[in-house]
Amino acid sequence: MARDMCTEVRIEAFNSLAKMQRVSGGVLLQSLSKKIIKTDTGSASSVKGKKLPPKLSFPCAAGIFAHGVEDEFYQVRTVACKTLGALAKLSNQYAQKALDLLMDMMNDDTEAVRLQTLQTLFDMATYGCLSMQEKHMHMFLGILMDANIVVRNAVWRKIRR
């Protein structure tokens, strides 16, 4: 549904994803990457002498957020951004990889998307799942000089908290 032709369906899909309480780490990580991530080396494992099938990958989750943050409609990008932050509470590894997508969203053409990105980063910091890396600092500091005064003021308010 995150790739549906109807904008409203895509928005609702991301809104629904934000409400998830438990999701496997494999599915979360797969949702950030368009490439299928293998969860097993391909060999079958055994438990008490019984062979088990190899773990399944999650191709249906592949790139959901990569598509969401690149959507042509800013409303979908905004909700995808919000959902990235909501799911970041579930996994630190996911939060670190989601940060790459969020930093790219700081350059979005739409003010609403940039403001939601700031709110998402603030929420992640509040929940203790934001660990800013040096490679992201130039992007974060660049938003302090944003051409839009609303965005600049929002950044300063968030920093002062």
UniProtKB/TrEMBL annotation:
Q: Which residues form the Nuclear condensin complex subunit 3 C-terminal domain?
A: 75-133
* A cellular component annotation (GO) from this entry: endosome
What InterPro entries does the record tag this protein with?
A: ARM-like, ARM-type_fold, Cnd3_C
One matching Pfam family is Cnd3
Gene3D superfamilies in the cross-refs? Leucine-rich Repeat Variant
Q: Which domain of life is it from?
A: Eukaryota
Q: Which GO terms describe its biological process?
A: intercellular transport
Indicate the family of this protein: Belongs to the CND3 (condensin subunit 3) family.
Name of this chain's protein: Nuclear condensin complex subunit 3 C-terminal domain-containing protein
Give the organism the record lists.
Triticum turgidum subsp. durum
